[in-house]
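ARCHIVE CARD
CATEGORY: sequence design from structure
SOURCE FIELD: tokenized fold
FIELD CONTENT:
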């Protein structure tokens, strides 16, 4: 085989075109923040009128949300956030654009503090800095070491098997531990599920571009819808038991870390990264997760 062909077939680091996904993902983060704020307001009003959720939001409360203009507006904004996120995934690897949602955490924290008139304490501010700083440094390393690789059928089968196991585990845990579920449990569950949603969205985009619409693609679509539905239910319950910036902290840290983990372990997006970059991924990811748990513990509204 000619050396020239080997050079062409081997994935390389991000080219300038792939950086287009970064500003698109940042716009999506803005809509994510605004959508979360409006949805949280809608859930609070429904609970004030129909009673607090004891073992998750009831079907009556879920339908009542549809009558709240603030919740509907928030849902539309979250829909726009998803559109921008999917568009960014069409340009760049998951490992680069998915963590950028952490920008939404800063916006949400400022908005919620002003709207609720609850000043963030020092520990909460430090936790937010850890979240955003850890994710920001993660993206900085990933932007120059990650590669965008085609998704094989074997990759997709692996992702779907793991997702099926995760869905069953979370469903059983919610049924058995319903009353014991707190905001952080809902947030972790939603973050993990939305990480699979982002990954499957990336896979579906890749397969459609490659003209591969088969039974496996349909299964991926079903898996995406199932993860999105259960994750969405967990998010609404998280709003009822915690402040919106805590919810966004969990989603914008746990979600991308799960998606990035799949991107690294299954899709091989870090296959060309040097050893130091792998250690950097672990260190910065740990810092971001520490910030989430710090926010869950020290946020003034969470302490109430």
């Amino acid at each position: 085989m000619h050396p020239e062909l080997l050079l062409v077939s081997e994935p390389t680091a991000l080219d300038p075109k792939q950086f287009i996904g970064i500003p698109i993902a940042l716009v999506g983060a803005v809509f994510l923040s605004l959508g979360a704020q409006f949805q949280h307001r809608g859930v609070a009003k429904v609970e004030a009128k129909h009673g607090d959720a004891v073992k998750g939001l009831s079907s009556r409360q879920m339908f009542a949300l549809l009558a709240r203009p603030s919740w509907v507006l928030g849902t539309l904004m979250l829909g726009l956030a998803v559109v921008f996120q999917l568009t960014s995934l069409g340009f760049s690897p998951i490992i680069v654009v998915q963590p950028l949602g952490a920008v939404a955490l800063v916006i949400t924290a400022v908005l919620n503090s002003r709207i609720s008139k609850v000043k963030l304490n020092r520990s909460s501010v430090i936790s937010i800095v850890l979240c955003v700083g850890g994710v920001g440094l993660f993206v900085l390393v990933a932007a120059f070491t990650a590669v965008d690789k085609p998704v094989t059928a074997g990759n997709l089968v692996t992702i779907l098997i793991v997702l099926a196991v995760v869905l069953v585990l979370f469903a059983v845990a919610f049924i058995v531990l319903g009353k014991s579920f707190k905001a952080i449990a809902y947030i972790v569950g939603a973050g993990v599920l939305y990480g699979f949603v982002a990954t499957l969205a990336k896979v579906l985009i890749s397969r459609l571009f490659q003209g591969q619409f088969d039974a496996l693609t349909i299964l991926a679509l079903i898996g995406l819808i199932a993860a999105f539905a259960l994750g969405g239910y967990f998010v609404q319950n998280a709003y009822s038991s915690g402040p919106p910036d805590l919810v966004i902290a969990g989603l914008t840290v746990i979600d991308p870390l799960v998606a990035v983990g799949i991107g690294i372990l299954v899709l091989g997006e870090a296959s060309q990264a040097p050893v130091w970059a792998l250690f950097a991924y672990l260190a910065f990811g740990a810092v971001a997760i520490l910030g989430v748990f710090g926010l869950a513990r020290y946020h003034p509204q969470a302490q109430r």
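CARD ANNOTATION: The radius of gyration is 19 Å. The longest helix spans residues 21-50.
SHELF: design records, drawer C
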